[in-house]
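pasting for ref. prot 1 ->
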Amino acid sequence: MKVGNIKLLNYCHYIFFFLFLLIGLVIYKDYGFNIDETFQRRSGLHWLNYLAELFKFDNLSSITNKKIIAINDFTMPWAEKDKAYSIIFDVPAAFLEIFLNLKEPLEYYHLRHLLTFLYFFIGTIFFYKLLKNRFDNRFISLFGCLILITTPRIFGEIFHNNKDIVFLTFFIITCYYYFQTIDNEKIKSIVLFSLFSAICTSLRIFGFVFPVLFVFIYLLSSLSKKKDFKKINQVLIYLFFYIFFLVFHWPYLWNDPFQNLINHLSNLSMFGSSIIYFNGEFFNSKLLPYHYLPLWILISTPILNIVLFTSGFFIICRKFTLKLFNVEKNLSGYDFWSNNEEKKDFFIILLFFIFFIGGTFFSVKHYNSWRVFYFLNFFIVYFSIYFINYQFLLKTKKYLKLLTTIIIMLTVFNFTRLITYHPYQSLYFNVLTTKQFKNNFEIDFTGLSGIEFLREIVKSNNKSKIYIGINSWYPLWRMRELLPDSDKKRIVFVFDDINKADYVYSNKIFNVNVNKSNKFKLNENFKIFKQRIIDNILIYEVHKKVER
């Protein structure tokens, strides 16, 4: 191979991440705005104001206070339970909004979208480092990043979902530093692992699994080799810094750490909708069927990911199952792993089982689709790369070319799906689903389509006042502030009597069982005006009043 080609291969990861960054910077303004963004912005301003008052930054305190007062939304209460969100994204976003002197809502929400993307961009770099650490292959590691990025439901979220995507980012970073802790057992690695474990915990309570599993694996190590019991100092250092960082970076805990943490845990079930439309039926969100999470994963994950994941998961489960049945015969090494690479795999598979079983069989509240568990894509890709690496290491490579060809074809197909769904990749369903089946689920549950509807209405209608009704459980009025001032004045939302509306918008998200309730039933004066359909999926529809 020519020297120039070798140098190009050495820099391929830089090229990959540069292209990804470039694409993100070009398209991040294409996406809609979800209903959580106003709330999350307020959370960031609240805690920035709290910190400014605490450290006597009077000017900053005054600015944040004015911005908080200016947020006027009667559907967004601000109770004590609402203050428990992590500050790791919202406070930096609020600070940048003020530092850059952004006045227009469209400007500071676009900033939040860009920031969400940049967080995930950093996460993909760590994901590459994690895969390279484990599999020691640059190209396989880059392919793992490519699978994660081109997973439509992930790609569509990285520009606006500053909860689940930010958690996924820090989840990846935390796992990476656990791998580093295994490799070198240095205090620096342990402290960084504890730091990111704490951040994960404030973002999602799932982060508590990291310290529990860290202690559990230490105990397993000590049972296998008594000399490992002397590493108790590593566990103590980790737990000390985990608790320290958890309290230090989470202001919600400062006044009364233990009680506030208990309050947060008890309030988690109060968030989100009380009813969910799933597989053609309405369910209480606390009483969803056990197949809720597995089915959502199966129908909204690309076929490539499912096949590779299933193959890798089977191989790794078989490997550790054999170890389990041969524990008594293993007298020289650890019971469940023979080297650091296997220990990392053991950690990952335990994490997966805990989260998947917990999300499937225990009373974890789901907030529409499986977005709370989008971080499971980390495991889907990890086991996929495990399978690919396994195939490359086999002595017999009889089917390697065929496998490579199939993987390339399916990867290209994933790219075409990203283009087809743009900018609604987060609403993706795979080819296993039929038209009717797709529409038996909640689609635009975060209301990304709302701003598109308003922009099209003000563009197509010249009336000085356009009366808009909402025929779903969705605060469309939050999107009005994103319009130019001249168009804001023209949009009038109808709340008391929907029959006064010129147009009625619905993203088909309801807080009652519409099969048993007439709450969202329109009268005959309204006829279908427009339906936004992508890949046979109804994203939203508009009814127009017909004068008789």
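and prot 2 ->
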Amino acid sequence: MLPAGGRPQPTCDRLLRSPRSASRAPPPGERRAFTRSNPATPTPYDVAHVENGRSVSWGELRSGKDRVLSNADKTSAHDAVAELIWNSLDAEATEIDALIERNELGAPVALRIRDNGHGMAPADVRDYFLTEGDSWKKEKRFSLTMLRPMHGQLGRGRLLAYAIADVVRWSTVAEVDGARCRTVIRGSRTQPAGFDIGDPTPTDDACGTVVELTMMATQKAARVGDDGFRDALIELLGESLLAFEGTVVRWDGSQLSTDGHVLKREELPLPAFGPEVLRGHGQPALIAVEWTNSKKGSKRVHLCNEAGAVVTTHKPDLMPSAGGWSAYLKWSGFADPQLMGVADLHHPEFTHRDLLDGAARSLNDYLVARLQAAKFDLVREWKQELVYPFTGEPRDPIEVAERELFDIVAVIASDSIPKKGTDQKRLTLGLLKTALESEPGRLSRALQALVKLDPDDLDQLDRLLNRTALGSVIRAASRVTDRLDFVNGLASLLYADETRRIFREVDQLHPMLVREPWVFGDEWDNCLSEHGLTRVVKAVVAAKSPETVVAVAPVTLEDGQRGRVDLLFHKAMPESERDRHLVVELKRPGKLTMEHFGQVTNYAVAITGHPEVARTNTVWDFWLVGTELDDAVAAQRSDDANRKGFVKDYGRYRLWVVDWGELLDSIRRKYEAFRAALEVVPTTEDGLEYVRRVHAQYLPPSEAEPDDSDDGDAKQTDD
């Protein structure tokens, strides 16, 4: 008998046991191990039960709760929403509607994203939801019908919804062998490592997926309802929307489009990267976008697949602040999970430094040219209006430098300078000139007070000062004070009772020092962090002969195990045709023992004894660094007063045991003359403020934010 609609209603249970997944999906009621990559691993599992009259199975990821929530909490609200929209695009949706449900105060309480894609077949749902870090999309780089490049390939995008949602519910309809079935999946932040997966039920509804998010009561989740949230989505999705012609994405009833938002879009030239950089993928493309509203744009480089879907975002150094801009580095390698692991999503510069440096140079040249053009037009306009605070020609090179610096700073601040009223313009520009002349070292504070400059523009200002003579003086003073502040901040983290017991070396101390390599000497050019001994040897050989294809045998310790060094620094010495390498082995606050000493000695023997290294003309130093030394370790150090911490020269390498206190004191003495000339008195609080500003993501939670307990107001923060 046919149902009222005239369409045969299929038995959806058989779709759970299709040939594709018969070995993976258990029959209802049966509990057994389930894992996509290894069915014998008894970690994830399905347990069938009845909930609200329907059969539901509970499935778990191999990842634990802490890992899932850690990744989600690091994700911004717009990135979390964009991931869900990209999932719809990967499902070949041509219409995507995102609607916000608000409470009586206007705050978002729910978000519903509906698409008309092909949905998820019942036989595939468990594969899609119960894997992380091993997405099915990496095996299918393009969608089946439209051949769209697939976005997510790490199997974690859906989990990022917990950045803003307490509960997430998917209702998906797919057609298999002429039968349409609906599958409902539910996840919650309280149990983020698992999902309730309902048995499929017959339906006549059209194919597609609806994702419903019950929003968290946090500031981050509340941003979904902000006016600027739409602009953030346009920036993230813009290149994809341009690539997928005919696809419509609506946000709260209004279509997302770059029309009217883009002032200028230009593809920038890139150097021809070699195979050692491309690793089997084609040449990348770099797109620069300037927004009509100069306050828009993240001033970041979005790393995308070849279709423009953003994989992660990188903040380059030394970028001029020429209005509101965004850049998109499009390369198929960014969608390759072999080249973009979870760590690379947060720090892509470690794996893709050459690629990012090439893009940064091209982008910098473009933005400098745009800044110079904007400067010329604005200064000419101010001179015509008689509001420009300088008259006549510069009298000497100092005034030339002063005017150049003023012009650049004024262009950065131009959006906040009054557009009408010559008296207001003249007053603002005059005050800006006075602040620059009287206290250039406090220019950022003056700008903030005068023109309410955007924080990101303030952050870029010191980098722009590279271009002027007066800026060089300011930059040198800033560098000295920043380094002294970092020394004081690091000393507090290493030795203060409240932090030294929880301060970790791998994910906190290491990445800080990668960005502050001068701590170990101004001469070090490059740094690699946390690399195995084999990769260290490859890096050494590649640094000596970049054109050489390196293939070395695995490097192991005497016991056959593979060790990992903390920091590796490289310095070329062309005058002697030799290279220098410094390996630093860091230990968390506590006493260094002979076990630690033996570890770094074993590393030295294994690396310098490898045949590939032995053939290079290289000077090696190995440092063991800690906050305290036990008596046995201290006895290994020589009495050479000129080489504090030196142990012995073994011919192939030199060994050092360095006390953090001694090292930081030597840095303070080195900068003492500069400090006295600048009349700077660095304090511990200044130091902690610096590390919070520059290295906040690496700090223990107790130190990531300043202590506001004295003001009596509890403050809610989010990433």
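Residues 503-669 form one domain.
The radius of gyration is 29 Å.
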